[in-house]
Amino acid sequence: MYKLCSLFSSSSGNSTFIGNEHEGVLVDVGKNCKNLEISLKTAGLEASAVKAIFVTHEHSDHICGLRVFANRYNIPVYASERTLEYLDVAGHLNGDFPVYSISDYADVGDFHIETFKTSHDVVDSHCYSVILPNLDKFSVVTDTGVITDETLDGILGSKAILLESNHDINMLNNGPYPYTLKRRILGPYGHLSNDTAAETTVKLLNSGTEHILLGHLSDHNNVPELAYQTTVSRLFMEGAILGQDYTLEVAKKNDPTVFEV
Ligand SMILES: [Zn+2]
Ligand SMILES: [Zn+2]
Q1: Burial class (CB in 10 A: 0-12, 13-18, 19+), 38
Q2: Which domain holds residue 224?
Q3: Which of 5, 32, 66, 189 makes a 20 to 30 Å CA pair with 17?
């Protein structure tokens, strides 16, 4: 049994563990070390189970606890070359932990991790798929304005996925954000809407995906029920029945949400 475990997920902090009680990898450390330690413990995981950290991009909701956590437990950090350069200059890699650049894939123990470019307004942004020792694939895709062909190719066939469902377009358009920020979020380098996430789940289900965890919800422009219903409705139009053809959850903002497959 392997877990896809969102430790916390929202615009104010993201971290996802993939693996089991003995070993696994973490995608992002978007809250401080203490918060991460608490979430791991709540999920029944020890920090020693984290064999590597993969960073999607340099926004603080993905890296703010990276340096302290990696240093405290001497965990290797992987990111793209350009992301590492940025993190280094900003002081986020100061410490004794090993750092590796990843361009296509990396192997950590019996885990094979593949990386794909996403579309986001940073120096370089990526998502990750983890091929587990039993050959199941679990993926984490957040912080992307669109699902590019490269991203889609990479994540198709995932048995379980954490997929961004950031905002409801109407809530965003009618909400409090300034116009320029609305344009940024809605643009090709922003965040994935509920509608685009739902559309993506259709392709995922057709490729064999069974477990969908919606995450990185906006604090201001979304509510969990809306994200959930948008995907359920879209998949229902395709004839897919919740609980029969797939499972669906919305990742909790501050607590772990676990799929055990
Ligand atoms: Zn971001
Ligand atoms: Zn983010």
Answers
A1: middle
A2: 3-251
A3: 189
Counting Cα atoms < 13 Å in the Cβ hemisphere of 90 gives 15
Q: Output the CA 3–ligand 1 centroid distance in Å.
A: 24
For 176-189, what is each residue's pLDDT tens digit? 999 999 999 999 99
Distance 243 CA to ligand 1 centre (A): 31
Residues with a beta carbon under 5 angstroms from ion ligand 1: 59, 143
Nearest ligand, measured from the Cα of 118: 1
Rounded percentage of the chain residues whose pLDDT exceeds 90 = 100
Confidence tier at 169 by pLDDT (50, 70, 90): very high
* Tokens matching residue 187: 């643009």
Q: Which tokens sit at 226? A: 């809306």
Give the ligand with the smallest distance to the CA of 166: 2
pTM of the model: 0.97
Q: Which phi and psi angles does 209 have, rounded to 5°?
A: -65, 135
User: Is residue 143 a part of any domain in this protein?
Assistant: yes
Name the pLDDT band for 238 (thresholds 50, 70, 90): very high
Distance from the alpha carbon of residue 10 to the mean position of ligand 1, in angstroms: 11
If one counts the domains in the chain, the total is: 1
**209 lies in some domain:** yes
